[in-house]
């Protein structure tokens, strides 16, 4: 059968090389290179999978359907091993042994080349229609196909919202859930961010939407001139982006002393003992465990200068240390995001095959679907697994 795959991202390449022995495959890519998002993943190191693949690390409006896809997780590493990729595992994260995303992409493309799979670059798919077969209209011509796979990703890492797959799917009868940036930096409403710019520290972040606690993330946070960044920030950003889109009040409380967890009484005793034994003022004490820029900012916001800890209004200082209020203005845009949240709902496809329930022989894989994961190889992992599922069904036709 003739199969056209739209896009040349991770789920596209996996699907193509797994079906090429049985079917005639054409990949159509509007860019001038294959696998651009693979090359930038993990800052070029390509954290391509995780040891602990589980639905709890993913967001989807149809999360109950995810397990049909995730159960294929045991097939991913053997597949890459068969492609010649040597990989390593660190803290449950899998990387190419070279720490280079290009090594993984080369393994995929070498197999693509061996299988003589045709790739048309610099060609955009403009319209897909279906009667008995598919008619695929592109910027360079018209093709017929028995099967079409929409695998051209999302808005993430693009300068503008220019992924045509959403409109292609919508014209074929699919719906699209709201699409927002995810795994992205957050912008704040306050004016003092130049005072903390450049700080990196461990922190515990708690997300509140309309004054209701949602969840928390722990890790290294990066304080910037516009707000906050870091993996723990990224992992909250999808929820934040949706809340901002829905005009909900969004607040993140930052605990800058997570090593005391939430025990303020223990912390007060600690500061009291330091003042007693060392005779330090509060600024000198805070500089023992905070970046001096952060110390200066907290003292400024608490309206404290060189006073002793025992002589200041302690509640204000404790609030800023344990629950510093970061009032969220929004997220950075799609070009800064690693993935998008939203897309085609899983309920509109057969998750055992990745085939559309609306259009026969239309398959949807990867980021175009309403599935996104946290940092750690989960999003590339979903791309591989969805491609594996689709290829199994396509090979039965």
Can you describe what's shown?
- With 397 residues, the chain is an alpha+beta fold.
- 30% of the residues lie in helices and 27% in strands.
- It is built from 12 helices and 23 strands.
- A 6-stranded antiparallel β-barrel has the order 13-16-15-14-17-18. Strands 7-2-1-11-22 form a 5-stranded parallel β-sheet, with helices on one face.
- Helix 1 runs parallel beside helix 5 (101-114) and helix 1 (10-19) runs parallel beside helix 12.
Task: List its traits.
397 residues, alpha+beta, six-stranded antiparallel beta barrel, five-stranded parallel beta sheet, 12 helices, 27% strand
Strand-helix topology:
Elements: E1 2-6, H1 10-19, E2 24-28, H2 36-40, E3 49-50, E4 58-59, H3 67-70, H4 76-82, E5 87-90, E6 93-96, H5 101-114, E7 118-120, E8 125-130, E9 134-138, E10 142-145, E11 147-150, H6 165-171, E12 177-182, E13 186-188, E14 200-209, E15 212-223, E16 227-229, H7 231-245, E17 250-255, H8 264-278, H9 282-286, H10 292-301, H11 314-322, E18 324-331, E19 339-343, E20 349-350, E21 355-356, E22 362-364, E23 372-373, H12 378-394
Parallel strand pairs: 1-2, 1-11, 2-7, 11-22
Antiparallel strand pairs: 3-6, 4-23, 5-6, 8-9, 9-10, 12-19, 13-16, 13-18, 14-15, 14-17, 15-16, 17-18, 20-21
């Amino acid at each position: 059968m003739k199969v056209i795959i739209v896009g040349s991202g991770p789920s596209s390449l996996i699907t193509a090389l797994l079906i090429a022995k049985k079917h005639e495959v054409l990949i159509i890519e509007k860019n001038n290179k294959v696998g651009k998002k693979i090359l930038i993943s993990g800052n070029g190191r390509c954290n391509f999978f995780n040891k602990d693949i589980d639905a709890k690390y993913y967001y989807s409006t149809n999360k109950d359907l995810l397990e049909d896809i995730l159960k294929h997780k045991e097939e991913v590493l053997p597949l890459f091993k068969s492609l010649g990729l040597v990989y390593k595992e660190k803290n449950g994260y899998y990387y190419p042994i070279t720490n280079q995303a290009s090594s993984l992409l080369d393994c995929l493309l070498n197999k693509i080349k061996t299988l003589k799979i045709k790739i048309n670059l610099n060609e955009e798919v403009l319209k897909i229609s279906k009667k008995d077969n598919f008619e695929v209209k592109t910027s360079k011509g018209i093709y017929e196909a028995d099967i079409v796979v929409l695998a051209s990703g999302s808005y993430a890492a693009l300068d503008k919202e220019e992924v045509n797959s959403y409109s292609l799917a919508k014209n074929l009868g699919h719906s699209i859930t709201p699409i927002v940036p995810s795994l992205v930096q957050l912008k704040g409403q306050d004016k003092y961010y130049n005072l903390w710019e450049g700080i990196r520290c461990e922190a515990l972040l708690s997300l509140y939407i309309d004054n209701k606690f949602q969840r928390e993330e722990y890790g290294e946070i990066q304080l910037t001139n516009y707000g906050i960044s870091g993996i723990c920030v990224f992992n909250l950003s999808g929820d934040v982006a949706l809340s901002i889109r829905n005009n909900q009040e969004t607040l993140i409380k930052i605990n800058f002393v997570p090593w005391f967890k939430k025990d303020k009484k223990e912390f007060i005793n600690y500061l009291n003992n330091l003042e007693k034994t060392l005779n330090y003022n509060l600024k000198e004490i805070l500089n023992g465990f905070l970046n001096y820029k952060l110390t200066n900012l907290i003292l400024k916001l608490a309206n404290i200068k060189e006073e002793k800890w025992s002589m200041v209004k302690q509640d204000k200082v404790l609030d800023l240390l344990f629950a510093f209020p970061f009032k969220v203005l929004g997220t950075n845009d799609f070009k800064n995001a690693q993935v998008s949240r939203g897309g085609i709902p899983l309920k509109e496809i057969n998750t055992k095959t990745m085939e559309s329930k609306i259009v026969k022989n239309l398959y949807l894989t990867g980021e175009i679907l309403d599935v996104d994961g946290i940092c750690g190889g989960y999003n590339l992992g979903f791309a591989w697994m969805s491609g594996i599922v689709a290829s199994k069904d396509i090979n039965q036709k």
